[in-house]
Structure formats: C-alpha cells, structure tokens
Design goal:
A hairpin with a 2-residue loop joins strand 4 and strand 5. The chain is built from 1 helix and 7 strands. 11% of the residues lie in helices and 41% in strands. The protein has a domain of 73 residues. The termini are far apart. It has a 5-stranded antiparallel β-sheet with strand order 6-3-2-1-7. A two-stranded antiparallel sheet has the order 4-5. The longest helix has 12 residues. With 106 residues, it is mainly beta.
Length: 106
C-alpha cells in the first residue's frame, strides 16, 4: 500500500503575485479502445503561469487574465500536485492586486 502524499514546503504566494507553477495533472484516455501496451498512462507534468487569484493551505488558483473585477481561464491546483512553485513577481501593482482580491471575495 502506498504512503499518503506529504505536503512539501513551497514559497508562500499571495493574492496578486505572478507565479510559475509546475504540477502533475491526470491524463485522460483517447476515444475508443487502445491496446494496454500502447496506452499512455503516466500523469502529465504541466507548467502554468498566472496571477494568484486564491490561495489556501490545500490549493492555489491561478488566472492568466484579470481585469475589472473578473478573471478568465483560471485553474485550481491542489498543493499535493505541486512539483515547483516560483514567485516571478510579488504583487506587481495595486490595480492587479485589487482586482484579484475583489474577484476572490465575490
């Protein structure tokens, strides 16, 4: 039986920070039947860049597009899927930070 996932220590990210997140995602199957020995069954490693829209001890929500209190194209990633979290820029402007805080509290 496998061990439960352990949370690693990553840099602290705050709402409004611009980050690069490298994480493990699931892989879905193609349409139709596939011989098992030809199936791509390993998880996929993803790199996402975006503004931190929400952050909790369990997950991080990134949005690549923000404006006027709205976000578009967000992705929420559980911390247990993180491979690397790099803060590229701390809260870059009052307006970006305000927009994300406003969106997160809605």
């Amino acid at each position: 039986m496998s061990q439960p996932a352990r949370k690693q220590k990553f840099p602290t990210a705050a709402i409004g920070d611009l980050v690069l997140l490298r994480w493990v995602d699931t892989r879905g199957s193609p349409r139709g039947w596939v011989p098992l020995d030809e199936a791509e069954i390993e998880p996929v490693v993803i790199e996402s860049v975006g503004w931190v829209a929400r952050v909790t001890p369990d997950y991080l929500c990134l949005a690549p597009h923000v404006g006027s209190g709205t976000v578009m194209g967000y992705v929420t990633v559980p911390v247990v899927c993180f491979l690397k979290l790099q803060v590229l820029r701390r809260v870059v402007s009052v307006s970006a930070s305000s927009v994300l805080r406003e969106a997160a509290s809605a």
